[in-house]
Amino acid sequence: MYLMVKQSSERVTRPSSTACEAWRLVSELFVALRERIPALAVELDLSPQQCHVLRSIEPGSKVPMRRLAETLGCDASNVTGIIDRLEARGFVARRTAAHDRRVKVLAITARGATARARIIARMAIPADAIAHLSEADLDLLCRLLRRALGHDASTD
Amino acid sequence: MYLMVKQSSERVTRPSSTACEAWRLVSELFVALRERIPALAVELDLSPQQCHVLRSIEPGSKVPMRRLAETLGCDASNVTGIIDRLEARGFVARRTAAHDRRVKVLAITARGATARARIIARMAIPADAIAHLSEADLDLLCRLLRRALGHDASTD
DNA sequence: TATTGTTATACTCTATAACTATA
DNA sequence: TATAGTTATAGAGTATAACAATA
After folding, report:
1. pLDDT for A7 beyond 70
2. Model confidence over A12-63: pLDDT tens digits?
3. How many of the other CB atoms lie within 10 Å of CB of A148?
């Protein structure tokens, strides 16, 4: 929650200390997720970034190189090399788009989709801290997080 | 919470669907944190990994190179280069440890501590999703997360 | 012998700038 | 002229293997 505070003769919003504390606790959970990625990448013989790319390409969809660059948050020039390596190993395929011959669209291959499924499954495994909560606590946590993220099923 | 399930004639624990859902929601929050780091690094004219190193060295403490490698989760050989660059710019200092002349300990400099404080302050700003919850929801969220993380003040 | 930190090497990811082919 | 993708380049992070100094 944001509180209004006086600061250098202007009203400025700043997060409440409870919000900061909640965020600090969430950040602790983040450690579990971050440590998981390199190990998963090694297991699949991929780089962490390659895992990220495969996660970003839904089977059946066609993703322009440019759009992938935006998703990855990196310069478009990098995508060329990243996709070169993934394509050489048969995880994705490049094709010229029908409507605009400048554009190249990416599709995930069967092999890529298999790796993708493993990545997604692994990332979906809850951190231990979450997993050992009671069902009642988990249910409450879900409801709070849905509200935070604006997935308003019911305002409750 | 873990449920016991029969699987290939062995009892195996697997997370409940509520736990998976909670984890999925938590993972959505991670996006906000992950996108923050590169921008922060650019602003401080540091790399993301250099930011991570500075966060890992508490002012006043002496951190052996080896320990830093474990904290970063990378091979010790990488730490040499990472610290070379940080030391050349005056963010950290290397000194031979008193008790064992093989060991080199790292200390953060005044300049390093200033950058570190900015990094920590920035990371501590709650994601918008968290910040716009009510105080009551935030309080509940904190209690749930403290319980999850084993910060048992009271079992409630 | 074992450990700490370093060096050498090779690969990936990163940004910037210049290029090509299309539009 | 603007845009999509590529290439060239330089720098940072990564792992592996071999090494010197020290324990």
Report:
1. no
2. 578 899 999 999 999 999 988 888 999 999 999 999 999 999 999 999 999 9
3. 24
Give per-residue pLDDT as tens, B20-61: 999 999 999 998 888 899 999 999 999 999 999 999 999 999
Does any strand D atom come closer than 7 Å to the Cβ of A83?
yes
Q: Which nucleotides of C are covered by protein (CB under 7 A)?
A: 3-8, 12-18, 21-23
Nearest to B16 by CA among A76, A130, A90: A130
* Minimum-distance CB partner of B133 among A20, A35, A148: A148
Q: Which residue of A has its CA nearest to B28?
A: A149
Residue among A116, A125, A118 at smallest CA distance from A32: A125
Per-position b or e across B138-155, b if 16+ CB within 10 A of its CB: bebbbbbbbbbbeeeeee
Q: Which of A102, A142, A75, A74 is closest to B144 using CA atoms? A: A142
- Cβ–Cβ < 8 Å for A47, A62: no
